[in-house]
Amino acid sequence: MEEIKGQILTGERSLFHGKDLKIVDTIFGDGESPLKESKNIELMGSMFKWKYPLWYSENVKVDNCVWFEMARSGIWYTNNIEVKNSVFEAPKNFRRCSNVKVDNVKFVNAAEMFWSCKDVSIKDVTAKGDYFCMNSEDLTIENLSLVGNYFVDGGKNITVKNSKLLSKDAFWNVENATVTDSVILGEYLGWNSKNLTFINCTIESLQGLCYIDNLVMKNCKLINTTLAFEYCNGIDADISSNITSVLNPSSGTITCDYIDELIIEKDKVDPTKTKIICRKR
């Protein structure tokens, strides 16, 4: 493997078609697409300062690197990439990538990050930005701290553990997601989704958990959650707190301490299809 160390590389496609390279303490300055169509690349202690650094690349390992703000749209159409101990100031990274592993990474501007990707592992990550992981499939997420709306919109086959999500409209249009030991704070949680499971979670939401087919909740707290479960089908919810208000659930079972306000409009839903159990009447 050829080693490139301590270099300042500029100009468009400075290492175009690079193969079997170990790149250490190197700065990629002005010049688009420095590592486009590269293969078998190791990057350590290096910096990207301009656009499109890793497009159509294969087999990339990154450790302790930095993407500056103008290194936007930096990693697209790339397969088999591992990034750890790094910082991204640039938005719109990771699009249409597959087999992605990210560990101990900070995304300062995570807008439009991880779009339409497959087989993604995200661990020990902090991020701020909207539309994180939109339309992506086969996601494994652990210890994510996110401030940003529309989390995993349109995603499929998602596992989230030990995370904190400050996110309006999180889990919209999602199919097959399981969330455990997490905190989710934001309005309109989970609309238009199928097969959502929440286990040991704390949730705060205005009009959360509506328009869902097959919703499972185990030992969850609903804090200040209002107008919940509207037109939700196949509910199996065990809530370890009270619920501020429930509106027109379509079918299933809701178990909780008590409900402050229960709104059932018989011209809109059949009340016999939903069983409600309050432990503290």
Strand content: over 45%
Helical content class: under 10%
The best one-word shape is elongated
- Radius of gyration from the CA trace? 22 Å
- The strands making up the biggest β-sheet line up spatially as 14-15-17-19-21-20-18-16
Helix/sheet category:
mainly beta
Kindly report the average pLDDT value: 97
Straight-line N-to-C gap: 71 Å
Number of strands: 26
Runs with pLDDT <50, length 5+? Answer: none
The major pleated sheet works out as: 8 strands, parallel, barrel
| Helical segment count | 0
* Helix-strand topology string: EEEEEEEEEEEEEEEEEEEEEEEEEE
Briefly summarize what is shown.
This protein is mainly beta and 281 residues long. Helices cover 0% and strands 50% of the residues.
Helices and strands, with pairings:
Elements: E1 2-5, E2 8-9, E3 19-24, E4 27-28, E5 39-44, E6 47-48, E7 54-55, E8 58-63, E9 66-67, E10 75-76, E11 79-88, E12 98-107, E13 118-128, E14 137-147, E15 156-161, E16 164-166, E17 175-180, E18 183-185, E19 194-199, E20 202-204, E21 213-222, E22 233-239, E23 243-247, E24 252-256, E25 259-263, E26 274-278
Parallel strand pairs: 1-3, 2-4, 3-5, 4-6, 5-8, 6-9, 7-10, 8-11, 9-11, 11-12, 12-13, 13-14, 14-15, 14-16, 15-17, 16-18, 17-19, 18-20, 19-21, 20-21, 21-22, 22-24, 23-25, 24-26
Describe this structure in words.
The structure is a single chain. With 281 residues, the chain is mostly beta strands. It has a domain at 130-278. It has strands at 2-5, 8-9, 19-24, 27-28, 39-44, 47-48, 54-55, 58-63, 66-67, 75-76, 79-88, 98-107, 118-128, 137-147, 156-161, 164-166, 175-180, 183-185, 194-199, 202-204, 213-222, 233-239, 243-247, 252-256, 259-263, 274-278. The strands form 3 sheets. The protein has an 8-stranded parallel β-barrel. It has a two-stranded parallel sheet with strand order 7-10.
